[in-house]
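In this section we walk through a basic example: taking a raw amino acid sequence and producing a predicted 3D structure, encoded as discrete structure tokens. The instruction is simple. Fold the sequence below.
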Amino acid sequence: MFSEKKIWKNRRNTATPKTPSAGDPAPVYFGYRQISADEKTRNVNRHFNSVARRYDFMNTLLSFGIHYLWKKEAVRLLSPKAGERILDVCGGTGDLSILADRAVGPSGRVVLYDINRFMIQAGRAKATHAVARRRIQYVQGNAEAISFPDDTFDAAMVGYGIRNVTRMEQGFKEMHRVLKPGGRLMCLEFSEPTAPFFRLLYDIYSLRIMPLLGALIVANRKAYTHLPESIRTFPLPDRLSEILETIGFHKICYRKQTNGISVVHTGIKPQRSG
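The resulting token sequence is shown next.
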């Protein structure tokens, strides 16, 4: 059976995986492997190139459809309002963008920002929510260097994508930069289940069954081996809250979903004094 000390690398009694700064040669985690930052960037891009076409189907299958409820609650906690400008970082095929578009309406604007063209194209080509998909603005770019000026957006969100950003803290710094003073951040990410027995079941399912389904359905066992491993090297909710506070966000809160499998963090960029 599994040893939790070996498979959960983000426990408080272990060092949080280091997020390198630009030019830092220190290795980073890609799943359980430590590799160079440049190699991780290439591997993540190849990963999403290979799964883009079946990405939404696999998410629904592997989560039994619950991911839609997680995303709906996360966007509700962000509280998008009519007329606002919302940035969806690592937006992928657009689930969060569509939810935000409903709230901001025709007078607002949702920008889906993602480094992977295959994921953007897969989302744009879907027949569902056609009106929203036409209204959304699609931009291909790196989350570590967001191509918008300071103080542009009323809110920024990232759903199940920040752990794939090579320099995670730099990605959050960029979101902080492009938010207007008083702007809101929402981060939706996977985490460690709270109850020990539930965590054991989750470990068996995610580390054994998920890779098998990845091999059978998308002929890519490696991609769905990396997914649960990447979750286990990501900071736990309290540690992520500390990181966001260090970057400059305040009023940081988080809410666990489904026994902690998924966690929503929210925070605010402070107003400028004077």
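Looking at the output, two observations stand out. The CA atoms of residues 248 and 269 lie 7 Å apart. The domain at 4-268 is CATH 3.40.50.150 (Rossmann fold). In the next section we compare this with other chains.
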